[in-house]
Amino acid sequence: MTNDTACVRIDKGRLWDSLIALGEVGAYHDQDTDLQGVCRLALTDEDVAGRELVMGWMRNAGLTLRRDQIGNVYARREGEDNSLAPVLVGSHIDSVATAGRFDGCLGVLGGLEVVRTLNDNNIFTKRSVEVAIFTEEEGVRFGTDMLGSAVAAGRIQLADARAQVDRNGISVGAELDRHALVGDVKVPIHPPYAYLECHIEQGPILAEGRMQVGVVRGVQAITWLELTITGRAAHAGATPQRLRKNAGLAAAMINVHLNDMVESGDYGQMLATVGRQDNYPNLINIVPANVLITVDLRNHDGEAMQRSIDDLHAYLAEVEKVTGVKITSRTTAQTPPVDFPEQMRDLVEKQATHLGLTCDHITSGAGHDAGEIAALSPAGMIFVPGLYDGISHNPREYSTPEACADGINVLLQAVIELANTTD
Amino acid sequence: MTNDTACVRIDKGRLWDSLIALGEVGAYHDQDTDLQGVCRLALTDEDVAGRELVMGWMRNAGLTLRRDQIGNVYARREGEDNSLAPVLVGSHIDSVATAGRFDGCLGVLGGLEVVRTLNDNNIFTKRSVEVAIFTEEEGVRFGTDMLGSAVAAGRIQLADARAQVDRNGISVGAELDRHALVGDVKVPIHPPYAYLECHIEQGPILAEGRMQVGVVRGVQAITWLELTITGRAAHAGATPQRLRKNAGLAAAMINVHLNDMVESGDYGQMLATVGRQDNYPNLINIVPANVLITVDLRNHDGEAMQRSIDDLHAYLAEVEKVTGVKITSRTTAQTPPVDFPEQMRDLVEKQATHLGLTCDHITSGAGHDAGEIAALSPAGMIFVPGLYDGISHNPREYSTPEACADGINVLLQAVIELANTTD
Question: Using the beta-carbon criterion (under 8 Å), do B204 and A243 form an inter-chain contact?
Fold first, then answer.
């Protein structure tokens, strides 16, 4: 190791090619945008095909692959001193149903690109460097996001994670077994020395400020609720309003109220989304008997999050009273806000500045594996800007080759520094 | 024919047994109510099995069966003078997906019971009596209610009706052909002398007033709209509210606004229901990109109906402005209010009074085949009360054997009078 590692740069074209190639796995034509999208829901055949592609690249880069009990992959480049904890980088490659090519994939393929660059330049590090692929980060299929990293970090028990089921009743455990994804690394995993993850911002802030790199302060608190609203089916033409128990109206009132809560400003930087709604019997001339809705809440501030949940539950009681329905609420995910340690933020900012990149400090709106691994080790994140207001979970998601390379060059330099730090 | 026909009564047990037997066709266990329900969507195998059962009974009662071009069935008991237009009675046996045993079936099986009673008592009438089974009255499968009777009455063209498709793209015409339901009676049909239909009230008014029979003034206007709301999919955690085009929020605002319109009292006796909602992509952490909702509007007053539609469209423009979504509206059904002629209402009231039954004049909240046939001939309806606030389109739908018999005894006496009137 010499000082000239500061001048080493990743191969922008190779990184880009790997992003494009992985985006072909699970590709579909998206009618909404008329673009090619990606659908690689966790632990489906498509997700496993994506893993196989990336794991092949990892093996070709000389990495040693292991899996843990929830199917997370760790691809290791040996350091000079195996008694030292490794530097871990990574993210996920599972996707939502209407995804682009970048969410998660940039962190995994960027980690691979870092290793490839170290190889190409014969750079040896004191600590090993490991590239992780975490299982079911999106939470879309089985209902809990950051599932794999949460199990790795010990926040969620392995048995509870394996027991989670998708809409068809298929469990995480059954899918892990079907695809033979269970490895011998026990969870929770041994804490790495540090964890770093490069990710697309998935928001408009960096682009608006014309910033090249984001130094991530931390991750918002996330709460997911599933509300089951039980009303009564009735004839739409012959049942006076006063005799209805309209589960659909109750759902609509909750949706509008959540938006009012956000706009009130009373809950800080709160975000609220009702993404899913399933009406039963879902027919034009029948008052809905049962409606299931999901509520996705985000907040930078844990106290404001809790207050918003309490106030929402008070409102649900009011809706029950006004409409005559019954509402049950189930919390399907709940993560506190995470603040990344100062030394990791400083490291990212320093390397970005050395590279001549403009950067800004921002809080992540989305949940990330780094927020889970932060429970084990010092963790940090690097954001890169996206076009179109940073739209994500949509085939229009797009970060330029330059933006991706900037983020991964920061990752490279930060990894080299961390992997040579032994104090 | 002698005056003693005034003392003839239908066989209450036989009528009831036929209702129960038909309710076994398409029966299912309803999880919501833990009761046996009926699912006999129009032109499905279940609907056709129900028709076969009833048509067998009709043939056993000596009736001659014909079908028209949209599959409506006419079962004829010959009168003494075939040059006279027949008295038509009937209703439908197709059902919503979560139905009880009475909606429509009472009118068809009541008509059959009238004929059986005439047979048992050797009562001959001057005019023929025909019992009709109308196709797709519910409109749940193909999107337009009273489809069969509207084609019979000439309001809807046969080709347009045949071209209607269900959610799977299967057309009315294809189903009619598959089941060989097309008959040789041309549509629009020859006007009958008069049309009478006995039906459950599907509302709470008769039961609240402890009335045994309802003399139906007419049928509410009905408008069905299908609203397609186009927003933009976006990440629920990283997309600020101001950058969203939230199709789900727009749908909720419309639902709440419709309820406000009803409660304002500004539109007379307006009813509004958003029964169906389909979100896309329907995932917990994605702002809905596209939402389809249906709107079912009812009004006693045609002018108030039109005003409510105009005001709703003005509100849709407001929602587009506030949320950034685009909304397209398609009218899938629209029928004006129908007033049944005074002589038919008087006839029903007179026969009910002769039978010693308490009765009240009420306007139908639901659409009925009688509202369509009213365009051809003098039409009238007899309502019978239901338990549980007259709940309908639900397995809890229930009218007692006595209530059913009361209505059909009124029908019997009215049919005898009409079928012997030659002026």
Answer: yes
Secondary structure of chain A as H, E, C letters: CCHHHHHCCCCHHHHHHHHHHHCCCCEEEECCCCEEEECCCCCCHHHHHHHHHHHHHHHHCCCEEEEECCCCEEEEECCCCCCCCCEEEEEECCCCCCECCCCCHHHHHHHHHHHHHHHHCCCCCCCCEEEEEECCCCCCCCCCCCHHHHHHHCCCCHHHHHHCECCCCCEHHHHHHHCCCCCCECCCCCCCCEEEEEEECCCCHHHHCCCCEEEEEEECEEEEEEEEEECECEECCCCCHHHCECHHHHHHHHHHHHHHHHHHCCCCCCEEECCCEEEECCCCCEECCEEEEEEEEEECCHHHHHHHHHHHHHHHHHHHHHHCCEEEEEEEEEECCEECCHHHHHHHHHHHHHCCCCEEEEEECCCCHHHHHCCCCCEEEEEECCCHHHCCCCCCCCCCHHHHHHHHHHHHHHHHHHHCCCC
Sketch out chain B's domains with CATH numbers. Answer: 3-220+338-419 (3.40.630.10), 221-335 (3.30.70.360)
Size of interface A-B (CB pairs under 8 A): 261
Please indicate whether, in this complex, the C-beta atoms of B274 and A238 are within 8 angstroms of each other: no
φ, ψ dihedrals at B234, nearest 5°: -160, 160
pLDDT band at A3 (very low <50, low <70, confident <90, very high): low
Nearest Cβ partner of B255 from A249, A284, A367? A249
Contact A214, A206 (CB under 8 A): yes
Residues A150-169 have pLDDT tens digits of 999 999 999 999 999 999 99
**Cβ distance of B32 and A240 shorter than 8 Å:** no
pLDDT band per the 50, 70, 90 thresholds, residue A1: very low
Mean pLDDT for the stretch of residues B177-205: 96
Mean pLDDT of chain A: 95
Q: Is B199 helix (H, G, I), strand (E, B) or coil?
A: strand
- Report the alpha-carbon distance of residue A392 to residue B268 in Å, rounded: 46
Q: Please write down the HEC assignment for all residues of A293-360.
A: EEEEEEECCHHHHHHHHHHHHHHHHHHHHHHCCEEEEEEEEEECCEECCHHHHHHHHHHHHHCCCCEE
Chain B, nearest residue to A284 by Cα: B275
- Distance CA(A396)–CA(B23), nearest Å, equals 52
Contact (CB<8Å) B277/A236: no
**Which DSSP state fits B44?**
S
Using only the alpha carbons of chain B, give its radius of gyration: 23
Phi/psi of residue A250, nearest 5 degrees: -60, -45
Q: Is the ipTM of this complex over 0.85?
A: no
